[in-house]
Amino acid sequence: MDIVKLSAIEIRDKILKKEISATEVVKAHLDRIEEIDKDLNAFITIHKEEALKSAERVDEKIRNGEEVGTLAGIPVAIKDNIVVKGKRTTCGSKMLENFIPPYDATVVEKIKNQDGIIIGKTNMDEFAMGSSSETSYFGPVKNPVNEKLVPGGSSGGSAAAVKANEVPLALGTDTGGSIRQPAAYCDVVGIKPSYGLVSRYGVIPLANTLDAVGVFGRDVSDAGLILSAIAGYDEKDSTCYEYPVDLTFERNLEPSEYVKGMKIGIPKEIYIDELDKRLVGKMDEIIKLYESLGAEVVEITLPHMEYCLSTYHVICKAEVSSNMARFDGIRFGHRTEEYSNVDELYKNSRTEGFGEEVKRRILMGTYFLSMGHGRKYYEKALRMRTLICYDFKKAFEKCNIILTPSSPILPFEIGKLKDEFVVKDFTSIFAIPVNLAGLCAMSIPCGYIEGLPVGLQIIGGRYEDLNMIKAGLAFEGGMKNGI
Amino acid sequence: MAYKTLIGLEIHVELATKTKMFCGCPNTFGEEPNTNCCPICLGLPGALPVINKTAVEYAIKAGIAFNCKINTHTKMDRKNYFYADLVKGFQISQHEIPLCEEGYIEIELENGPKKIGLQRIQIEEDTGKLIHTMEGDTLIDYNRSGVPLIEIVTKPDMNTPEEARLFLEKLKSTLRYIEVSDCKMEEGSLRCDVNINVIDTETGAKTNITEIKNLNSFKSAVKAMEYEENRHIQLLKEGKNTLRETRRWDEVKNETITMRVKYGVDDYRFAIEGDLAPIEISQEWIEEIKEELPELPDAKKERFMKEYSLSEYDAGVLTASKELASFYEDTVKYIDDPKLVSNWIMVDVLRRLKDEEVEIQDTKLTPEKLAKLISLVKTGQINNNTGKKVLREVFETGKDPEEIVKEKGLIQISDESQILEIVQKVLSENQQSIIDYKNGKDRALGYLVGQVMKASKGKANPQLVNKMILDLINKM
Amino acid sequence: MVTKEQIEHIADLCKLRLSEEEKERAIYEFTLILQSLDEFDNVNLENVEPTLEVNKHTQRFREDIVKPTLTRDEVLENTEEKQYGYFKLLKIVE
User: Fold this and answer.
1) Mean pLDDT of chain B
2) How do residues B401-410 score in pLDDT, each as one tens digit?
């Protein structure tokens, strides 16, 4: 059997049945990484020794008949903006090239507690600022489907690693589509859970009121497995939801079972001029599939959809500019060699340590918070956000699930949009409203168009993540059954 | 020409909680550098703040004690600026909606009480500490980073440096009363900035506000204010104006010195702290805190005046600190003579505290011991002078006064025959004094009494001595 | 709409140094974005409350209980510039 082609659930199953050992599993995945990652560049750091040690510990537990966790023996990759104690965490940036965090993120602790094996840290757009994983200080990530294409971003490394069978499961972060868009472009499942469902403690922030930690898997069940492991209340995160959210589901039911009684909404605003025409046909196919499974499909409206991108630009950048202020080279991070006063220390360290895109966003965010400059735009954007949240509230009175394409365009070539800032963000135009409203959404593969993978976005209500997962399982089952 | 001075104060008070504002690191002073730190108070990327409940409780206590309105719906904001002691590049503070608003502190002036208005009390976190070395480096210790602070901003209601001083004393004593802070300026747990300007009441001309920072005692603050007040008035007289600037007080030169001139307003780019959730304070919690609030200085003073029949002045002195007030009341429990206890404390005990620069709770004197001492004097077993000596000994050794008196054989001699012997000896040796006295020099009597006290090693009962000498002389 | 002086002022506020080219690029980007933001005027935002955060709960407080700190070595681990247990910098002019 080709171990790296197994799903996460299959791996754990076989380990428990003692058909394979965790050590074998980890070795197989490390070999796979060794084989292809020089080219793919999905990883920044590989935790070879620690992974093998962890695998040995799991094997010992199995030998002793001890109980093991829900992720026992499963290799997991962690996006490099999530801290792992004692191992470098770079955020894809020169600024943190040698930063060794003295603590674990809560999600990392949870994975370790469930006996998951952390294989390494994945590559990403620098400080999660980008939609193509091209801005990393450590070089761009390639798309395993087609190496000429971008894998999407900013969690491109995690998406690519899962698609290329380097790991079955990976963590990412999503502020404006950074999990869903790369999931779509790399033909894997990506979930951005509801804001507050998963702890952000130890996750280096982009925008505090938009960020969510999410997951990648090659199918919905795998993604659901790791989501359940990392979700849950954390007292260390004041924005974390304290009530338990049920994420348990039965696997292998008839697809129609999952969507029994569900109403599916299609926002009429997705049919914009910029939408790739081929995706219109795709959406029709998807609607037919769900209808054939017994779900009711209705048209809904999100009237302020067209303002989402600009609203996001303002709020995200404003929060970013403040979050990036701690990078001054004094306690950690890149410190300039030459300075004759503190002002120079700050300016040199930051200018040398940050890439172009990061500097641009900090600049613009600072502008939006400045009195007498862009502040009035910030105030307006905050109000627009209210209207966007309200749009969804009204929409979810008419349906349980909202469907859109994950991206309005299909994956593009590396280097093509690198300097086109507006157009590049545009690729997340359907994803962004979800972050503004704090909702959950999944991107699930729905086939190919002329060799390019297409992703379907399934949006669920706040803390209705189980609905989203069920709709995903239904779709996946339906696709498998060849509907 | 008449001038009106306007003084407003901005006071930062470190709260006496066990842990810091947003993390569980210990809130203690004087530790080895960088040993009270964690990812949160070091501002490491990814670390998140969680608000200390006790810090909020203490801030509400202060708000209630200072007659503020407590905002039940409030939030934390970010104040963005770059400085090496500010780990995140922003301070988590309160901008839009402070926890407490619109209160006042009453000070006692000669012509009656005056209310000094408070604009706001907000909760926030402290920064690290910068130390400048001789070699020209700056060393940074982040132990203080994240310590809980309340910032108290007054209205410019104070019109003299003395009013400001009274305000600060009242603020400090109240905060210590409610045990919210130890308010030690020398340890930095109370810091004060001054905003001062002067108006020419005839012409309406106003000087630009000067901000004075880096004051390390109430004394320096007063001196700095006096200096500034004069400087402003001088400039007005010359038809000039002050710059809008920040100055610091130089202890050595006894003058304020420019730190930096203000161009425009500082742009802190205030925005909500997105890593915290909005804060809701329930009415129940406020009521609970109100109930648990100890008796405040003003109320205690009133009660002392009634219960112990003390004058306003005496009651004021005794209630200046909570510890002193407790000490007084505990002593009175042992010896039911409020007036006598008050005298002893106000004169001898306070003098000792002032000389040694300590507080009552740091000494070896206890209410029980003081009561015993006072009793010994009251019952005539020792005289007043001896009493003072014994008090000194108690302060030094902590021994029981009765033991000290026994050990040193200090019991007052009230035996008339014993005294008579000494008196007769002294009189026989001091004929001239007797003559002097008979010639009208009253002081000679005092001299003779002194001689007898000396000969008796201070143990003779002075009233008796006095009486005896007079009797004998009058018979001569 | 945004001048070079404004860009320079903003860059100083956020402690970044921009090359002349970067300043030009910034002006270009600002112009694009501000143009799209002017479209907000098509929507009546006057009586709309701002959404500052999307939490479904209010702040949970932390009990005032001491938790373990980092060791001093851990605190100083990520910098080369340290002395006597402190972080070290060139003298800061107040």
Assistant:
1) 92
2) 999 988 887 8
Give bridge partners of residue B192 from the DSSP assignment.
B11, B215
Please state whether beta strands B210-215 and B245-250 pair in parallel, antiparallel, or not at all (unpaired).
parallel
Question: What is the distance between the alpha carbons of residues A457 and B437, in angstroms, rounded to a whole number?
Answer: 114
Going along chain C from its start, the domains and CATH numbers come out as: 1-43 (1.10.20)
Instruction: Tell which CATH classification among 3.40.50.1820, 3.20.140.10, 1.10.287.500, 1.10.10.410 matches the domain B416-475.
Output: 1.10.10.410
Instruction: Count helices and strands (H / E) in chain A.
Output: 16, 11
Identify the closest residue of chain B to C67 by CA–CA distance: B24
* Token pair of B96 as six digits: 């839009």
Q: Do A101 and B39 touch (CB under 8 A)?
A: yes
Q: What are A405's strand-pairing partners?
A: A456
Query: Is the pLDDT confidence value at B385 over 90?
Result: no
**pLDDT tens-digit map of A223-273:** 999 999 999 999 999 999 999 999 999 998 999 999 999 999 999 999 998
Q: What is the pLDDT of residue C91?
A: 67
The number of beta carbons lying within 10 Å of the beta carbon of residue B135 is 7
Amino acid at B352: R
Question: How sure is the predictor about B420, in pLDDT bands with cuts at 50, 70 and 90?
Answer: confident
Indicate which residue of A136, A154, A155, A407 is catalytic: A154
The amino acid occupying position B228 is E
* Residue B347 DSSP one-character state: I
Q: What is the pLDDT of residue A475?
A: 97
A470 an active-site residue? no
Q: Which of A14, A21, A54, A79 is catalytic?
A: A79
First to last CA, chain A: 29
Higher-confidence residue of B420 and A267: namely A267
In this complex, is the C-beta atom of C8 within 8 Å of any C-beta atom belonging to chain A? no
| Extents of the domains making up chain A | 1-483
Strands B100-109 and A212-217, bridge-based pairing: unpaired
Say how far apart CA B258 and CA B211 lie, in whole Å: 10
Q: State the burial class of residue A86 (Cβ atoms within 10 Å of its Cβ: 0-12, 13-18, 19+).
A: middle
Which residue of the set A54, A131, A178, A428 is catalytic? Answer: A178
Nearest to B46 among A105, A331, A342 (CB): A105
Q: Could you name the CATH architecture of A1-483?
A: Alpha-Beta Complex (3.90)
The tokens describing A478, both together, are: 């339906």
Q: What are phi and psi of A44, to 5 degrees?
A: -100, -45
Mean per-residue pLDDT over chain A, rounded: 95
Q: How far is CA B166 from CA B154, B159, B256, B305, C49, in A?
A: 14, 12, 22, 21, 44
CATH 1.10.10.410 domain span(s) along chain B: 416-475
Exposed/middle/buried for residue B471 (C-beta within 10 Å: 0-12, 13-18, 19+)? exposed
Q: List the single residue in C58, C68, C92 with the smallest CB-CB distance to B130.
A: C92
Check CB contact of B269 with chain A, cutoff 8 Å: yes
Cβ neighbours for B65, distance < 8 A, ≥ 6 positions apart: B174, B175, B177, B178, B293, B296
Per the annotation, the verdict on A79 as an active-site residue is: yes
How big is the B-C interface in CB pairs under 8 Å? 122
Q: Do C88 and B137 touch (CB under 8 A)?
A: yes
- Rounded to whole angstroms, what are the CA distances from B19 to A420, B25, B285, C26? 48, 5, 21, 44
User: Quick one: pLDDT at residue A423?
Assistant: 59
A310 is catalytic: no
Facing residue for C89 by CB, picked from B26, B137, B267:
B137
What pTM value is reported for the model? Answer: 0.90
pLDDT surpasses 80 at A16: yes
| Residue A419, pLDDT score | 66
- Distance in angstroms (rounded) separating the CA atoms of residues A429 and A351: 30
Amino acid type, B188: G
